[in-house]
Amino acid sequence: MDRLSGDLAGHDGSREAEGAIAIPFAQSSDELFVQAQRRLSVPDELFALSELDVFYDERAEALWTYMRPTGRPSFTPPMLGDFVNWQRLIGAHFGPDHVPLKYLILGSRSPGVFCFGGDLELFASLIRDGNRDGLAAYGYRCVEILHRNMHALDLPMLTIGLVQGQALGGGFEALLSFDYIIAERGSVFGLPEVKFGLFPGMGAHAILSRKLGSALADRVIMGDITYTAEQLNEMGLVDRVVDAGQGERAVRDFIARAGRRHAGLVGARRAARRSENISLAELRDIVDHWADAALMLREQDLKLMQRLAGAQEKLPKVSAA
User: Fold this and answer.
1) How far apart are CA 157 and CA 248, in angstroms?
2) In whole angstroms, how far apart are CA 61 and each of 36, 37, 185, 223?
3) Could you read off the pLDDT of 78-133 as tens digits, one per residue?
4) Rounded CA gap, 201 and 287, in Å?
5) What is the Cα–Cα distance from 229 to 165, expressed in whole angstroms?
6) Cα–Cα distance between 78 and 6 in angstroms, integer?
7) 53 - beta bridge partners?
8) CA pair distance 318, 321, nearest whole angstrom
9) Where are the domains of the chain?
10) DSSP H helical segments within the chain, as ranges?
11) Cβ–Cβ < 8 Å for 126, 136
12) DSSP assignment string, 139-187
């Protein structure tokens, strides 16, 4: 599939002409030259990441990305490595004076799952080894990625999380770093860490306390409650709920409606970030508390953690691209 296209009708194999790039006949030679230069400016490396599928829509100036994990739909070290490279390549090659980018969208290829969050098998292993440095290093990497996304990679663009299934633990935390969340009906959200004696350590406390207030944030974080997309929409965390199968269309509709309001929306989001004032130092400090707490878990907690990881492993795998 062509990953650099001006005519992406959809990103689920439903393109009108597979492999074709639609170029209007009215384009001048100068416009065609600029378009060709843009194509050459986007590195092939961005489209060859192991666990992320990336597509650039030239017409909408939108970069669509889908998580495609090789194992459990979680933030494993290889997945996190892809996200680091993804952010690095976008920051270096898109934006003013580079390839135009107004919208950055993240979804998932995993059937019925956005993301389950942290790598529970890795956590259990590090905890049994008493490896606090390993736990903290994992958490620091997560919050560094999250913090960059919270600031839209310092680019004048809007970020959109597309949810078509379960978003739990760190998967839910990751979504909270997006400017807008569009979720299909049937999607569910939750922070299950309290089940095994822990708490979410990669952003939930800082972000939810700003968005909801400390009392409601504590209820969401420590209540072990699974929320529907509709419930989170009422709370103001999910921006739009659409019927199953309509998520991508809803994102394209959002982009079409944003139109001339784009600059104002970007400015409003920047003002909100300034008001929320969530620093990377705060996020890293919470990771330190999380790592200390993790080392206090009992063996029965670790066994439950591994059972959850085993259940995730049995879910249907992502089809090869």
Assistant:
1) 18
2) 15, 15, 27, 40
3) 999 999 999 999 999 999 989 999 999 999 999 999 999 999 999 999 999 999 99
4) 5
5) 10
6) 30
7) 66
8) 9
9) 4-313
10) 29-41, 77-93, 120-128, 132-150, 170-175, 204-212, 214-222, 229-235, 247-258, 262-276, 280-294, 299-313
11) no
12) HHHHHHHHHHHHTGGGSS-EEEEEESSEEETHHHHHHTTSSEEEEETT-
- pTM of the predicted structure, to 2 decimals: 0.88
CATH T-level topology, domain 4-313:
2-enoyl-CoA Hydratase; Chain A, domain 1 (3.90.226)
Instruction: Determine contact, residues 18/12, Cβ cutoff 8 Å.
Output: no
pLDDT (tens digit, 9 = 90+) per residue, 170-215? 999 999 999 999 999 999 999 999 999 999 999 999 999 999 999 9
Q: Are 103 and 255 in contact (CB under 8 A)?
A: yes
Rg (CA), the chain: 20
Contact criterion met (CB below 8 Å) for 290 and 201: yes
State the distance between the two ends of the chain, measured CA to CA, in whole angstroms.
9
What CA dihedral angle connects 72, 76, 236 and 234, to 10 degrees?
20
Q: Measured between alpha carbons, how far is 87 from 145 in angstroms, rounded to an integer?
A: 8
Encoded tokens for 236: 């103001």
Burial of residue 253 (CB within 10 Å: 0-12, 13-18, 19+) is: middle
CB 194 within 8 A of CB 176: no
- Cβ atoms of 315 and 113 within 8 Å: the answer is yes
> CA-CA distances (angstroms) from residue 113 to 2, 108, 160, 163, 281?
25, 7, 17, 8, 30
Running DSSP on this structure, what letter comes out for residue 99? B
Kindly state the tokens that stand for 153. Answer: 């990679």
User: Which amino acid makes up residue 319?
Assistant: S
